[in-house]
Specification:
With about 625 residues, this protein is α/β, with parallel strands linked by helices. It has 23 helices and 21 strands. The strands form four sheets. An eight-stranded mixed barrel has the order 13-14-16-17-18-19-20-21, surrounded by five helices. It has a five-stranded antiparallel β-sheet with strand order 2-1-5-4-3, with helices on both faces. The protein has a five-stranded mixed β-sheet with strand order 7-8-6-11-12, with helices on both faces. A hairpin with a 5-residue loop joins strand 3 and strand 4 (about 155-165). The radius of gyration is 49 Å and the shape is elongated.
Length: about 625
């Protein structure tokens, strides 16, 4: 266009010059030569004009090609298979293509000016910042994989290339190129999950395999070292599994293993692990049992017994009913344990169980096994004792300051057919743990009421009260009040003569619940004595709310009086507290006259202990009462 304008401006000048030369030629000979020159210049001018027109045509074609190229570039940028965007130094989007807008499901108009971090999944923003810092330090292209979020908040995986440069104004520009790799990432995660399952889980039962159980056992050992709470490792073997496989086929055998895995999982607590070691062997890892090894062993034993209960029902193997028996070996997880030792010990214990005739349970530690055996025997004997009513009551009299018997404390004894008379210290703790204390406690209540009813026939005995001990497990029963009410109605006794002895710790475990239940029982007419008073940490504010009739000073304080200033002070304080609250105070464990005299001189007028009588049988009690009822 510029050349054309030059040509248009030049032609009039050339024509004027040619006319002038022609006029001069007509007046002189020299002008002929000038005309010739003009004609020559005109000819050259025409040629130049043609060249300019050719160049103009080429320029038009170049412009059209440039426009076409620019359009193709814009199409390539906007509809590229990957997303592009440009950020300023603050991380705001200043340019973005349609592909990225579609990936994010956000219109371009909304993306422009928006911070890129709003498009990055919140849990992956640390990755974004990390690579930005690397980019600033190195000025080299950074590549990473992270999750971005669509307009509706849905996360998806992208591969991101980040580069940096400066524009003509020396300002930092960041270029991002991203591609959606969600399907690739999903396939990768599925592959990793498959590999993990093959590495750590049994293909048949889907239970953790030996390798995973070992890993978790290693973690459990670390926990034991930190908190000292024992655990246990079980090895379980299916008895006579080979015979089933040989007679019924491997398909039936595999089905049994699958069903066994399901039943084992029924016994699991949160945090426990059941796994398959291979073949017909399974493993169970229990953690967090108890700080005391004996208690942990007892809990492991109970767990093993629960497993045996779940195996009592036959298995249905596609219409074939099969009664499955198992042998169990247990290794206790304690401080100083190692994975190798625990596996070895559990395996040895399992073989001991098989050698013992199968369908049984053995601990690795011989001493522990002996203790467990004794506990198992005790449990079995207690069940028999309850069924055969092998218990009896002994009585320890309680006297006033004049030596008159005002009542008795009923104390249970077990008439064991082989061991003879067994004191409660040897079986009550186990009865409490196993729950057998409930039928035993009910028996004691009924026998005490029966004795009170019998005494109603005798004038010198009908005012005697009887104290019985109530265990924590008994007292916490939801239906305990109804149970007591039923026994009272059935026996027909005066409930004011029945006294429940509760330990201080029992009451303090749930002070609000204790007050509520004691108040309900008080309405039935029974009274309460707080046993072992002074050994706990009673709050006086709560003590005033308890419907107590009696405080029993613990024997541990009586043992050291007179002589121990601290114990003397405690005893005086308890006596004074009882007087102030109008609660009777009785001292137990009185064994010498000096103790009695000290108590009398400080205002305690009721006693119980060997100075007056040991716990005695029913017949011996009648003789004692003949001498000490004041009639």
């Amino acid at each position: 266009m510029k050349n054309r304008r030059v040509l248009e401006n030049t032609l009039p000048l050339l024509r004027a010059k040619a006319e002038r030369l022609f006029w001069e030629k007509t007046h002189s000979h020299e002008k002929e030569s000038s005309l010739h020159m003009v004609q020559k210049e005109l000819q050259e001018l025409c040629i130049h004009q043609i060249e300019l027109e050719v160049q103009n045509e080429e320029l038009r074609e170049s412009k059209e090609e440039l426009h076409s190229t620019k359009k193709r570039y814009l199409d390539l940028y906007e509809f590229a298979p990957v997303g592009y965007c440009t950020l300023n130094e603050e991380g705001d989007i200043i340019q973005v293509n349609l592909t990225m807008a579609k990936l994010l499901a956000i219109p371009k108009s909304k993306l422009l000016g928006q911070s890129i971090k709003t498009c990055i999944y919140r849990e992956d923003q640390d990755i974004w910042y990390l690579y930005c810092q690397k980019l600033i330090k190195t000025h080299t292209i950074q590549a990473c994989e992270l999750r971005m979020t669509k307009g509706d908040g849905t996360p998806f995986w992208v591969h991101l290339d980040i580069s940096i440069q400066r524009d003509t104004h020396n300002e930092i520009i960041v270029h991002l190129t991203l591609g959606d790799i969600s399907s690739h990432k999903q396939a990768q995660m599925e592959l990793e999950a498959t590999v993990h399952a093959l590495a750590y889980y049994d293909a048949l039962t889907k239970l953790p395999n030996r390798r995973l159980v070992q890993d978790r056992l290693s973690q459990a050992i670390g926990a034991v070292e930190r908190n000292g709470i024992c655990g246990a490792l079980f090895f379980i073997d299916v008895d006579h599994f080979k015979l089933l496989n040989d007679t019924r086929g491997h398909d039936v055998g595999d089905l049994l293993l699958i069903e066994i895995s399901k039943r084992l999982q029924l016994n699991m607590r949160f945090g426990d692990t059941v796994g398959r070691q291979g073949g017909d062997e399974f493993m169970i890892l229990l953690s967090g049992l108890s700080e005391k090894s004996t208690e942990a062993a007892a809990m492991a034993l109970q767990f093993g017994q629960n497993i045996y209960k779940t195996f009592e029902k036959p298995f249905d193997l596609n219409g074939f009913e099969y009664s499955c028996k198992i042998s169990i070996g247990i290794s206790l997880l304690q401080k100083g344990s190692s994975v190798e030792e625990l596996f070895k010990h559990a395996d040895i214990a399992l073989y001991q169980a098989k050698d013992a005739g199968r369908n049984t349970l053995c601990f690795f530690d011989p001493k522990m096994q002996e203790a467990i055996n004794l506990r198992t025997i005790l449990d079995s004997d207690l069940h028999s004792a309850i069924a055969l009513q092998e218990f009896c009551l002994f009585y320890q009299p309680q006297l006033d300051k004049k030596g008159v018997c005002i009542g008795v404390e009923a104390l249970i004894r077990w008439k064991h057919p082989k061991r003879g008379l067994v004191t409660p210290f040897d079986f009550i703790p186990h009865a409490e743990d196993s729950g057998l204390i409930l039928p035993i406690g009910l028996w004691v209540l009924k026998m005490a009421c029966a004795k009170l009813k019998q005494w109603e026939q005798y004038p010198d005995r009908k005012t005697l009260h009887m104290a019985i001990n109530v265990s924590t497990r008994q007292f916490r029963q939801p239906n305990y009040v109804l149970e007591v009410e039923s026994v009272l109605k059935e026996s027909g006794i005066n409930p004011a003569l029945l006294e429940f002895e509760l330990t201080e710790n029992l009451v303090l475990e749930d002070i609000v619940g204790s007050i509520e239940k004691m108040s309900e029982l008080k309405k039935l007419g029974v009274s309460f004595s707080m046993d072992d008073f002074g050994t706990g940490y009673s709050s006086l504010s709560y003590l005033t709310q308890l419907p107590l009739s009696q405080l029993k000073i613990d024997k541990s304080f009586i043992d050291n009086i007179p002589g121990s200033k601290n114990n003397e002070t405690i005893v005086r304080t308890i006596i004074a507290m009882g007087d102030g609250m109008e609660i009777k105070v009785i001292a137990e464990g009185v064994e010498i006259d000096a103790q009695k005299e000290f108590l009398l001189s400080n205002g305690c007028h009721f006693f119980q202990g060997y100075l007056f009588s040991t716990p005695i049988s029913e017949d011996e009690l009648e003789t004692f009462l003949d001498r000490n009822t004041g009639t």
